[in-house]
Every structure is written in C-alpha cells, then in structure tokens.
Fold:
Amino acid sequence: MFPCSECGLCCQNIAGIEELKSFDLGNGVCKHYNTVTKKCNIYDTRPEICNIEKMFERKYKQFFSKKEFFIENAKVCNLLQEKYQLDKSFRVIIGDM
Ligand code: SF4
Ligand code: SF4
Structure:
C-alpha cells in the first residue's frame, strides 16, 4: 500500500486534473475534501484517478515497477509539502517493498 501520510495536499490541488474538473471548487480544492478531518468524504467510492493502486494496475504497470511508480508519486507529495512548508514528519518515504 502507498504510505500516504494523509497531509491532504493532493486533494487541495486538483486544478488541471481533467478527470477531477467537476470536483474543483474553483480554487483547486476538491469538493469532497473534508477540511476538518483532512480526509476524503467519498473515499470508498473515490474516482480511479485518486487511487494510486488502481491507477498502477490499470495504466502504469506496463511502464514501471510498483516501487518505481510509488517513488514518482512520493516525489509529487513531497514537492507539494515543501511548497506548503509542511513539517518534515509528513514526507512520504518509499522503503523496501
Ligand atoms: S499529497 Fe501524498 S501524502 Fe499527502 S495526502 Fe496526498 S497522497 Fe497522501
Ligand atoms: S475525490 Fe477524494 S481523494 Fe479524490 S481529490 Fe477529492 S477528496 Fe481527494
């Protein structure tokens, strides 16, 4: 499983993601993002684009190993966190798999 640290930043930065266009409140924040719990309100039925495991299986496993794919995703998480100056404890580190 992808070691998401639940920083919530991906769900607050969906601008430009075609599949989530109708979810954007207009400021890049997803309408299903819960600002209190910092979680997704529709987690169990969230779109495929929000599900790293499913996206890997459906689209990316022909190009990457799972570890490589996770590392690429983690880079985006960590770049976002750096941009928002989030505490380093949130950084996503892909260890042995
Ligand atoms: S940006 Fe990464 S670590 Fe943060 S909630 Fe999204 S997937 Fe998880
Ligand atoms: S649907 Fe859920 S997981 Fe997907 S961007 Fe919105 S809040 Fe995040």
Notes: The pocket of iron/sulfur cluster (ligand 1) is lined by residues 4-10, 77, 80, 92 (CB under 6 Å). The first strand starts at residue 33 and ends at 34.
